[in-house]
Amino acid sequence: MIVEAVRQLGAFRLDLAFEGPADGVTVLFGPSGAGKSATLAVVAGLARPERGRVMLGERVLTDTATGRFVPAERRRIGLVHQDARLFPHLNVERNLRYGLTRARGERRIGWDAVVEVLAIGHLLLRSPRDLSGGERQRVAIGRALLSQPELLLLDEPVSALDAARRAEVLAFVGALKARFGLPMLYVTHAVEEARLLGDHVVMIADGLVTAQGSPAELLPERAVTGRAMREGVALIDGVEVAVPGLAAPEGAVVRVSW
User: Fold this and answer.
1) Do residues 28 and 42 touch, judged by C-beta distance below 8 A?
2) Phi and psi at residue 192, in whole multiples of 5°?
3) DSSP conformation letters of 94-127
4) Crossing angle (nearest 10°) for helices 163-180 and 133-146
5) pLDDT of residue 51
6) Taking the model in full, what pTM does it have?
7) CA nearest 192: which of 207, 213, 171?
8) How far apart are CA 86 and CA 108, in angstroms?
9) Nearest to residue 43, comparing CAs of 7, 84, 67?
10) DSSP states of 144-179 as a string?
11) Contact between residue 45 and residue 70 where contact means Cβ atoms under 8 Å apart
C-alpha cells in the first residue's frame, strides 16, 4: 500500500506520504485533528487530493499525475467508523448480508468464517438497538468484511467504547489479522492499540508524517518499579504516584508500565 496526498482543508493542510505492509496492519497514530481521518477519506476515495497517489498492490486507485481516480464504490475497500452505522430497520443477519450485496469479484471471505471469528452467530436475529456497543462494532466489521475488501479501514473503531468492550473488539480485530491476512489501515490516538495491533506505525501531527516504523521502535513500552502504598498509589523513587486500578497489598513490589 502506497499513500501520497496533498489536500487543503480550510486552514488545515494535509501533506503526507507513507507505505504500509501488503498483509499487515498499518496504524495511523496521532492526536485528534492531526489528519488521520482526512487520510482515510483520500484512501477510501471519499475525497480527491490536489496532488497524490494511492496504490493497493499493483492497483492504482488515485494518481493525480495521470488523472486516474477510481470511485469509492469500485475500490473494494471496507470502512468501519467510530459508530457502527448499522441499518436500524434491519436485523444483524440482514445488515451482514448487505455487505454481500456490495461484494465484487471472487468471494474469498466466507459467511461462516466471519460469523465464527467475530462470534456473532447468536446475534443474527437481533435488532441493532438490542446490541451492546462492542457487539455493534463487531457486526459493522463483519459487514465490511463480507463486501470482500482488498483493504479494511478502521477509523478509531473502539474509541467510544468502555474498557471492557474496547478489549473485546481489539481481540477480534487481532483475530481477523491472523485469520484473513487482510491489509488494514487503523486510526487511533491510543498507544496501547497501536502497540497491540500495529505491524507498521505512521505518526502524524498537523497533517504531516513525523515518523514511521515498527511499534517497538516508535512506541517503546516504559516501566518503573516501586512499592504499593495504598489502593491506587505507589511509591516510585521516593515520590507517591497515583496509579489508577492499582490494588496491591501495602509494601508489595509493583511494576508500572505505560
Assistant:
1) no
2) -65, -35
3) HHHHHHHHT--S---S-HHHHHHHHT-GGGTTS-
4) 20
5) 97
6) 0.85
7) 171
8) 23
9) 7
10) HHHT--SEEEEESTTTTS-HHHHHHHHHHHHHHHHH
11) yes
pLDDT digits (tens, 9 = 90+) for 227-252: 888 888 888 878 787 777 777 888 88
- What pLDDT is recorded for position 23? 86
Amino acid 26 reads: T
Contact 153, 80 (CB under 8 A): yes
Place of cell 518499579: 225
Q: State residue 257's pLDDT score.
A: 67
Percent of the chain with pLDDT over 90: 71
- List pLDDT tens digits, range 180-198: 889 999 999 999 899 999 9
Name the amino acid, one letter, at 91: N
Q: Where are the alpha helices (DSSP H) in the chain?
A: 36-44, 92-101, 111-118, 133-146, 163-180, 191-197, 215-218
